[in-house]
Amino acid sequence: MPISIKLGIAGRLFTAALACLTLAATVPTGRLFIQSTSPEVPLYVYTPIPESGLEPRNIHLSFGDNETSVVVTWSTRNDTQSQVQLMSVQPPNATEKLYNGSSTIFVDSGTKKATQYVHRVTLPDLGWGGLFKYRCGSQATGWSDWFEFRTPKRGFSPRLAMFGDMGMVNAQSLPRLMQDASAGMYDAILHVGDFAYDMQEQDGATGDQFMQMIQPIAARLPYMTCVGNHEFMYNFSHYKNRFTMPKGFGGDGESMFYSFDLGPAHIIGISTEFYFFVEYGVDQLKSQYDWLQADLERASKNRAARPWIIIMGHRPMYCSNDDGDDCTFGALFMREGFLARWYPLEPLLQKYGVDLALWAHEHTYERMWPVTRLEVRNGSWAEPYSEPAALCTSSLGRLVVESVTTPSGRRCTILRSAAPTMATPGCRSSTPPTSAWSRSATISRVES
Ligand SMILES: [Fe+2]
Which UniProt keywords apply (predicted)? Predict the structure, then answer.
């Protein structure tokens, strides 16, 4: 079955969000209001953290080991059971189904040793194209509010919101994300590192507040993540304990490196921070590198089913900010390996033809032509790239995926954003791209 992907990097959302949203303030009730100056974007009201110690908080979803499986993760201050009540809305089914999971205890390493219990319940194989509502908690200690989520339709083309570096205090993009998520614009979120600035502050209360702040989005859409440098404290323990990334293709089991299939794409999340926080051990750098090589090998043999290989990590391998820091020295570590020698990423990405790399960290929006070894591999509709290592960096972007058939009737997969067009040879048509296409930077891959 042909599968196609069109993926646009959304300067539009980024620009609109930063231009229109200006005010974040804490009011005496403890509620956080994020106000938009745009009449199109409503006020966002932060829901306070429940104080009972028993009530679920920080509720969020992630993909399980396949696209129709969902993991519900939440925390409680006290030790409670881990249960989810699930009801199918579409197709309708009045019968509630009860799922059981488990919890792990997480103790912050600050002076208070603040303790919470992180609950995880897997909802496996829910089927394609369903609309569900759920609540989490337990029959013994009480339930959360009801939340709704959808499973993708068979053969779907994913629509993803991608960003990094949000922060607890000045999350200016959140109202727009909320609005877009409510409108059903996305199938999932990709948050590419740096979450609360910083989660461990206030003995972990900042992390709790951040997770509560994103709950209206994350409780209804899979919130897929990478670790960033701002999660470095206590060996990234807040990140490792708060999120639940898939384990179906292996990885470290702590959400630091993992991968999952989504529609026509194989998406890989890695820790770029292993290259910089080596005091936590060089062995994890080797573990990630060995796993990544095996994962890319497997994914490259599965192009017929998943034509796109996309990697995401926090610090960019290429960027252009003139800060004398991560776009020069740091990027060298990423491309050529730790101390310009060990476990270089770029040869791996080039060898296996990784199509798109998503980075964050720089607090700028930037996208690049396909580039390897500091050279741009030209890509245009007339002269497509032949060494596909398309790299893109962004602090906030939107990825939109659609199906494409060329005027000649050839099915192919497409990446698109707002700049000139690129394509692979097999996807070239005898006729030039349409005016709509020519407004976009597009990279395409032929379907088998
Ligand atoms: Fe960062």
Answer: Glycoprotein, Hydrolase, Signal
